[in-house]
Amino acid sequence: xxxxxxxxxxxxxxxxxxxxxxxxxxxxxxxxxxxxxxxxxxxxxxxxxxxxxxxxxxxxxxxxxxxxxxxxxxxxxxxxxxxxxxxxxxxxxxxxxxxxxxxxxxxxxxxxxxxxxxxxxxxxxxxxxxxxxxxxxxxxxxxxxxxxxxxxxxxxxxxxxxxxxxxxxxxxxxxxxxxxxxxxxxxxxxxxxxxxxxxxxxxxxxxxxxxxxxxxxxxxxxxxxxxxxxxxxxxxxxxxxxxxxxxxxxxxxxxxxxxxxxxxxxxxxxxxxxxxxxxxxxxxxxxxxxxxxxxxxxxxxxxxxxxxxxxx
Length: 312
What we know:
The protein is mainly α. The chain contains 13 helices and no strands.
């Protein structure tokens, strides 16, 4: 019960508040887009830059942490993709999007707030490392699978340049990289700059969670419950379970790092999966349904997970 009151209720309560405000018309789509742009372009990059610039890094980082997280993710991806292709007889593009739905979580808008609420500054480095590798890596995989499946070699040739351009233009990744470089140069932040970054960073978490809820209000359950359910099972159950196994018995990670990876793996399907489904007209209905189902069910699954990990 204490987990619900101290961690789950504040985070998912703000998600529900954003969702309700948007559904009731108290918070418009334009307002959601505006706050979302502020969060993505300014608030979260400021939070990441300041945290990485001020962070005292351990003498050695166990990079098996990332292998455990993404290894579990790709296992969930393969399972969701196989179910889509073999059970529901979907084409390669639709199956690839289903795989992404089983592995791509809401790491920024929900994962960062939940980890920082649970572990405070101690969880910052591991969750920020996951975020820095997350989107560009999974975006590359789904693009290769879809374009390769459709035989579009021209687009595949342009993919490295497109990915590099996207990385350079991504404010979140630039926040992480900039903070790391500042830290490596052993520079201190001027007081006025630190104050600006701190104030922006304080706005990041509540605005991100509220915006996530408001964004979900634009989606509807669109059927395909069985297909959606397979994605949800892979995302909420298989992915965190696989990360726990890898982090515990294969890489023997420190408990905090392992548990952070498991919690992030348990995040519901991210909105970017829906954007890819729309872009390629592949599995739009099951992805929309899976995203809403996973977000609603994650209130229960994440609560049980935190209890199982010994969070009190």
